[in-house]
Design goal:
This protein has 124 residues and is α+β, with helices and mostly antiparallel strands. It has helices at residues 8-16, 55-66, 108-121, and strands at 25-27, 33-35, 50-51, 68-77, 82-91, 97-99.
């Protein structure tokens, strides 16, 4: 089993919203995934790259720093005649709640990625 890295677009948005953390991978200026080098201390953002955290690390950062929770949900959709995923976003204070009903997603990771993007966009 392998952790899913966020996409370049999500990483770029996370950086704009203040995500700054050392990660094992980063996106280069050419949008390529690269591993951090030995001796590269601190944050890949400082070296012209953009941190490429796993979905779960970004999810944790949103929860701990901004008190925003992103939860993918698996359910049966009568129209799609099968099981699909969507996502729910809520803040710990209960001020904001949103469901990802715009689309149904085939995988947990797709729903989580879209939920992470939506959550990043509501950070004040």
């Amino acid at each position: 089993m392998k952790e899913q890295l966020i996409t370049f677009e999500t990483a770029k948005l996370a950086k704009e919203m203040g995500f700054q953390s050392y990660t094992s991978f980063y996106y280069s200026e050419g949008m390529e995934i690269k591993g951090t080098k030995i001796g590269m201390h601190g944050n890949p953002n400082a070296y012209g790259g953009i941190s490429a955290p796993t979905q779960s690390l970004l999810q944790k950062w949103l929860r701990e720093k901004h008190k925003i929770v992103v939860i993918p949900r698996y359910y049966h959709n009568e129209i799609a005649n099968g099981y699909v995923y969507d996502y729910r976003i809520t803040d710990i204070a209960g001020k904001y709640e949103d469901y990802g009903f715009v689309d149904d997603y085939k995988t947990y990771e797709e729903a989580l990625e879209e939920g992470l993007v939506a959550a990043l966009k509501i950070i004040d």
